[in-house]
Design brief:
Length: 504
């Protein structure tokens, strides 16, 4: 044959190429690209002297200086995703922001060829493997990552976490603070949240922005904004919180309500944003919702679970905000306000502010005019946040700002909790003879309320019948909320409760 001939050798354990392809997945194009040149025999003899083969220096490597594939990998910042056909190469967006582009092997080969690297061995240099194949082979040995995904609050690059090496593909887009007016933002927040609400919101957001910019994993409460429909409360989430927290948000409802365990989308967003929680007043659903909130707020790490991939533990920076309408049916879908959850929530009340929105009425698109006005002031608002001093009365030890739930909403939510129903049943069951206190353990109380002769027999059986420990749990919550009426009485042999009659 004229020209250079390249040989692809079938493995010794396979009798021919067909058996080889049946035994394993074969990348034919890659084999051809990596094939060594076959020298021409003299005078047509198959046993002639071979030419153009690399000369060994006795160590199994060519005697000429080897091609520095690792140096190329460092220069390109090229990585290979373990067990896949995907490579990731660094790219700059022109504004100093780093991101990693995903490419298949064919795309990477083309990009390397355009940079001048050889796709075939050079017989004159005694090469048996091309530059490109050396680069890709080195990537699969020295530049291997187990995950390629965004992680909230983590800059682009390779990071080691428990469970594997993770390539963070993109950094968040932080707004650069600069001095200037931000009167539209302040007036919007004040009209919506009131003076007290604005102070709490700014304190919460200040701590979040400072921690994110410093690269700290500082916990922060879940922000819940309750208000009438179409008052603009979700605009706070989209137009103010998301941009100041890096420009990325994700809706965690499916994960928060047990519909899926995959959370890769959430791991890559600094702002977890919920607009209107699903309508479920089942106690179990609400409890599960509360547990998810506590995980996001308090945990330093999270379990990254991507579909068809093993799980990995990472450390995302998260802030959670929830907006919902203020009608009682929606509020009943919030989690039970247990002591360990109350400290992890800042709840603010919003109201309609028609006077504020009138300034955009003459615009062709009032919503766009509002967005443009807010966006133009965000750098100045970021500067104001960093310079803001949180009042002492709003400071909190754990989160930097005190948790808060309006008393009226807290009371309304408690009225619908099972422990409050137990208190009502106790007061109607004639437990207190001549005003005397009742004493006994949780099972004694359950038997008393569920007895056939009890005035609250049916309701007590529905409340306490399905869960053996329910009565004790509800009494513990009542003791926390009403310590003067419900008291634990523990001895060496008995765990009982003392319940006082309601005050007349």
């Amino acid at each position: 044959a004229k020209g250079i001939v390249y040989r692809v050798s079938t493995p010794a354990n396979c009798k021919d190429f067909n058996e080889w392809t049946q035994a394993e997945k074969v990348d034919v194009l890659a084999l051809l690209a990596a094939a060594p040149p076959e020298s021409k025999p003299k005078n047509g003899s198959t046993n002639g002297e071979k030419k153009n083969l690399p000369q060994s220096n006795g160590s199994g490597t060519p005697s000429s200086a080897p091609f520095n594939a690792l140096g190329v990998l460092e220069e390109l910042d090229l990585h290979w995703l373990n067990g896949s056909q995907s490579y990731f190469i660094r790219a700059d967006d022109g504004a100093g922001r780093v991101r990693y582009l995903e490419m298949g092997s064919g795309d990477i080969r083309r990009k390397l060829r355009t940079r001048g690297y050889r796709a075939r061995p050079d017989p004159e240099s005694n090469e048996t493997v091309s530059h490109i194949d050396r680069i890709l082979d080195a990537a699969t040995e020295h530049r291997v990552v187990d995950f390629a995904i965004n992680i909230a609050g983590t800059p682009a690059g390779v990071h080691s976490f428990p469970g594997g090496r993770v390539l963070v593909r993109e950094s968040s887009r932080l707004i650069e603070p600069r001095p200037g007016p931000c009167s539209t933002i302040i007036e919007f927040l004040t009209a919506l949240l009131g003076k007290e609400g604005v102070e709490r919101f700014i304190a919460w957001l200040k701590i979040s922005v400072e921690a994110l910019r410093a690269g700290e994993r500082r916990p922060g409460q879940a922000l819940i904004i309750v208000g009438p429909p179409d008052c603009g409360k979700s605009r706070i989430q989209h137009q103010i919180i998301t941009p100041l927290l890096g420009g990325r948000n994700a809706d965690p409802k499916s994960y928060f309500f047990g519909r899926t365990d995959f959370n890769a989308e959430l791991i890559g967003a600094e702002h977890l944003l919920i607009e209107e929680i699903p309508s479920s007043s089942r106690h179990e659903d609400r409890q599960f919702f509360g547990e998810r909130i506590k995980e996001v707020v308090a945990n330093d790490t999270a379990r990254l679970h991507k579909k068809n991939k093993d799980a990995c533990t990472v450390s995302p920076f998260w802030r959670l905000s929830i907006t919902l309408n203020d009608d009682p049916e929606k509020l009943r879908c919030l989690p039970p306000l247990t002591d360990d959850l109350v400290e992890k929530i800042i709840m603010l009340e919003a109201e309609r502010s028609p006077e504020f929105w009138k300034r955009f009425d003459e615009a062709t698109d009032p919503r766009k005019a509002f967005r443009d006005a807010i966006n133009s002031e965000l750098p100045a608002f970021a500067q104001m946040l960093l310079q803001y001093s949180i009042p002492e009365r709003l400071k909190g030890r754990r989160y930097g700002v005190a948790s808060y739930i309006p008393a009226e909403i807290a009371e309304m939510l408690f009225d619908n909790e099972p422990e409050n129903l137990l208190r009502t049943l106790i007061d109607k069951a004639n437990l207190f003879e001549d005003g005397a206190v009742w004493e006994g353990d949780a099972e004694d109380l359950k038997q008393k309320l569920c007895a056939k002769e009890s005035a609250v027999h049916a309701s007590a059986c529905r409340l306490l019948g399905n869960y053996p420990t329910a009565c004790g749990q509800y009494l513990a919550r009542l003791a926390t909320r009403f310590p003067a009426r419900f008291q634990k009485h523990r001895t060496a042999t008995k765990r009982s409760w003392i319940i006082k009659p309601p005050q007349q």
